[in-house]
Amino acid sequence: MMVHHEKQLQSSRAITGTTVILISLALMVFGFYYSITSGAADISGADVRQAFSHFNAEKETHLIVMDLRLPRALAALLVGAGFAVAGALMQGVTQNPLADPGLLGVNAGAQFMLVIVFAFFPFLPFSSIILFCFVGGGFGALLVYGIAFLSAGGMTPVKLALAGAVVSAVLVGVSQGLAILFELNYEMAFWEAGGVAGAEWTQVRVIIPWILLGLVIAILLSSYITMLNLGEEMAKGLGQRVNLIKIGAAVSVFLLAGAAVSTVGGVSFVGLLVPHIVRYLTGTDYRWIVPCSALVGAAAVLWADIGAKMVNAPYETPLGSIISLVGVPFFIYLARRQRRELY
């Protein structure tokens, strides 16, 4: 009887997961088309198709499509998938419902390292800058976990969130001080606002392999993270190499979050919000959570970027502000709902 019930549950989750994937793909396709055709300059669908099939470098609409809107839409999809899967992995490995690259010091660490690069190594290409963002993200996360671990009573989700807030405030403050000292306000403006408006083909080409590598690692680890969620002792009893799983997940998180942060800037809450929605719909099996989070995150950031373009046209609203309108209330709700479990 139990086996039959388990099979029914798995079948139901598979149907739900497939439905989530199909709906997300549809939203991505429609959003991708709408993102390319919408904006300050009205461009028809015929112009878009012509730009792809018979590109003319002397035609302004073709240049807008190929050099501005296409890399912007692709960047939104890539960073959305990166942030969402990074958040899902962090929540799964740490069993912390408040885990998110922006809340646990990854974004602030990457920003700090970005300022260091702009101040002392301004000649570096973007392909090298992204490596510094990986290191900075890891540095920020290690500070957060170190402070939470050394605090009285040990590490809890709320202490991690508080440590993340403190570390992020310190790193952002230092970054802003260095930016003022070295007159980097213009260079850092895009990062602090958060958005893909300035995304270029150079950035997209560089982050694609890093994002894909991070996603592949996450997919390969997905079944192991599901077992890890049963508890570390049980996972060890099932023969799982827990420390190796955690290291692999950390590598994936730094690849995904580092690449996304270096491109889109200070955007939080995607990695917090999306995995919870996906987990609610598909259950606790990370073989569904990881791919669904990637697609839902990609669609969410793409549509948030469309909102950033349209909500205050012809002026743009920062992407980070659009996402925070949903993310902050959700964070408060989540902390209140699970307050008894978090302390």
Automatic annotation (TrEMBL):
CDD domains: TM_ABC_iron-siderophores_like (cd06550). One of its GO terms (biological process) is siderophore-iron import into cell. The chain crosses the membrane at residues 12-34, 73-90, 102-123, 129-148, 160-182, 207-226, 247-274, 286-306, 318-335. Its main location: membrane. This is Iron ABC transporter permease. One of its GO terms (molecular function) is transmembrane transporter activity. Belongs to the binding-protein-dependent transport system permease family. FecCD subfamily. It is a multi-pass membrane protein. It is found in: Cell membrane. GO terms for cellular component: plasma membrane. Keywords: Cell membrane, Membrane, Transmembrane, Transmembrane helix, Transport.
